[in-house]
Design brief:
This is Acyl-CoA dehydrogenase. It holds the Pfam family Acyl-CoA_dh_M. The protein has 12 helices and 9 strands. It is of the alpha+beta class. Helix 1 (19-35) packs parallel to helix 4, helix 8 runs parallel beside helix 10 (321-345) and helix 10 packs across helix 12 (374-386). The protein is globular and about 80 Å long.
Length: 392
């Protein structure tokens, strides 16, 4: 199957990918079109996760590309960004599922794990044999996670005992392992732990009544004297600076995903505009509609350009926190504009799930907030610009 750039990739950034990367994108795009696209609206409405798709989705290779223990061939961060884009333009929840298990869980082990931990856990996560989650946010600690974590880890011989609560943890109602970040009671430093979810004292409860990313199974987690062996402490996760290394990678991934959400809404609006007849012609032939479509495409194009560059910087080992923070802040803001303009094109039909835009419109709100709010990310950029930290 020949690779075709998306029409919404207006400047053809994806044409610079290696042939094997384009082939992989084509495989994923075909799988999503054949097995996911027709199901997600119903799943979104009922807030159900398609567990039967986990193994087939992972079999396309989406989880294998980042780490040497699992990747079939050399690849670029730009390519991995386009993977996130392809997933999100079909459904942000499916992309978030992968972002949690492959980006955050595998990322934590890949960045902070020992060689033995990487060899044991990364292939199992990449294949879909097991599912991962990432437990950082707490009921009273989100933006201030660097200082405000209350979950504790206490060394007891050759084990650690974890106590505390986590909130908004994606995949956590069905994950096999969750990466738990907790403060060591001995030195007050943040440490990371691989916690099997069948460990006594670990309880995950689904968060109900969401209006965004309804397919994602977010949970509240309670940890009560959860006892795990030293072998499950991430060997190289010994301060929040180590946690930040993981977030630097995944913030750029959220930027890419937000472009995919914008594209999904834009493509649905364009399709509708070509078919909807008003005043004797398709509304796509009206000046005001073309203006909105052009503004959507400009947002998408600018965001892809920024994402490509920040991913190139990752490959060159030149990406810093402020680079991924700017990408996340800018792209999610432009996404928010784009899904609103796309909904506007549909008029009243824009709030009906059957036309797809409403789902992207609602899901955009979650991407706008998670992995660091716009304000927190701009403060990271502001610190780099001025040399002064403005955090509380």
């Amino acid at each position: 199957m020949t690779f075709q750039p998306l029409d919404s990739d207006f400047y053809g950034f994806s044409t610079t990918l290696e042939p094997h990367e384009q082939e992989a994108l084509t495989t994923v795009r075909s799988f999503l079109a054949d097995h996911v696209a027709d199901r997600v609206t119903d799943l979104w409405e009922t807030a159900e996760f398609p567990h039967d798709l986990i193994r087939p989705l992972m079999a396309t290779g989406v989880g294998t590309w980042a780490w040497e223990e699992t990747r079939p061939r050399e690849n670029s961060a730009v390519f991995r960004g386009f993977l996130a884009l392809e997933l999100s333009r079909v459904d942000a929840s499916i992309s978030t599922f992968l972002g949690v298990t492959e980006g955050l869980a595998m990322g934590s082990i890949g960045v902070c794990g020992s060689a033995a931990q990487r060899a044991e856990w990364l292939p199992r996560l990449a294949s879909g044999e097991i599912v991962g989650a990432f437990g950082l946010t707490e009921p009273l600690s989100g933006s201030d996670s660097a200082r405000g974590l209350t979950t504790t880890a206490t060394r007891d011989g050759d084990h650690w005992v974890l106590n505390g609560q986590k909130r908004w943890i994606g995949n956590a109602t069905f994950s096999d392992i969750t990466i738990i970040w907790a403060k060591d009671t001995a030195d007050n430093q943040v440490k990371g732990f691989i916690v099997p979810t069948d460990t006594p004292g670990y309880v995950a409860t689904k968060i109900e009544r969401k209006t965004s990313l309804r397919i994602v199974q977010n949970a509240d987690i309670t940890l009560t004297n959860v006892r795990i062996p030293e072998s499950l402490k991430l060997e190289n996760a010994n301060s929040f600076a180590d946690t930040a290394q993981v977030l630097r990678l995944t913030r750029a991934g959220v930027a890419w995903s937000s472009v995919g959400v914008a594209i999904g809404a834009y493509e649905a609006a364009l399709e509708y505009a070509r078919e909807r007849i008003q005043f004797g012609k398709p509304i796509a032939a009206h000046q005001m509609i073309q203006d909105l479509l052009a503004k959507c495409l400009a947002n998408i194009t600018a965001s892809i350009a920024l994402c490509v560059r920040v991913s190139e910087m990752h490959d060159a080992d030149a990406q810093r926190d402020e680079h991924s923070a700017l990408a996340k802040s800018f792209c999610t803001s432009r996404m928010r504009e784009t899904v609103a303009w796309s909904r506007e094109i549909l008029g009243g039909n824009g709030i009906v799930l059957d036309y797809r835009v409403a789902r992207f419109f609602a899901d955009a709100e979650a991407l706008y907030s998670y992995e660091g709010t716009r304000e927190m990310n701009t403060l990271i950029v502001g610190r780099a610009i001025t040399g002064k930290a403005a955090f509380v």
